[in-house]
Amino acid sequence: MAAGRLIVWHTWDEAEAPIIEQVLADFKRLNPEIHLSIERKSYETVLDEYAVASRAGLGPDVLIGLESVFAHLLYENG
């Protein structure tokens, strides 16, 4: 796999975050040439933050969270 950067946003709360952080740590171990940037976003504001960031070309490569949050993106942007 080529070297690069992967920006990951997730909305998992403090109780759930260790699970996704372990999965991403395993990914890093298996893919050391890829720099991961991991950010925990608020469930309440992630859609607004995503809209602003993506319009500026700065959005995440991966969004991880409850499908109910992201389903909105599919219906709005088809």
Properties at a glance:
single chain, three-stranded parallel beta sheet, 3 helices, 45% helix, 22% strand
Please summarize what this structure is.
Helices cover 45% and strands 22% of the residues. The chain is α/β, with parallel strands linked by helices. The chain has a three-stranded parallel beta sheet with strand order 2-1-3, covered by helices on one side.
Order of helices and strands: EHEHEH
Q: How do the strands line up in the largest sheet?
A: 2-1-3
Counting DSSP E segments of at least 2 residues, the number of strands comes to 3
The fraction of residues assigned to DSSP E strands is 15-25%
How does this structure look, described?
The protein has helices at residues 17-30, 46-55, 67-77; strands spanning 4-10, 34-40, 62-64. The protein is an alpha/beta fold. It has a three-stranded parallel beta sheet with strand order 2-1-3, with helices on one face. Helix 1 links the parallel strand 1 (4-10) and strand 2 (34-40). The termini are far apart.
Topology:
Layout: E1 4-10, H1 17-30, E2 34-40, H2 46-55, E3 62-64, H3 67-77
Parallel strand pairs: 1-2, 1-3
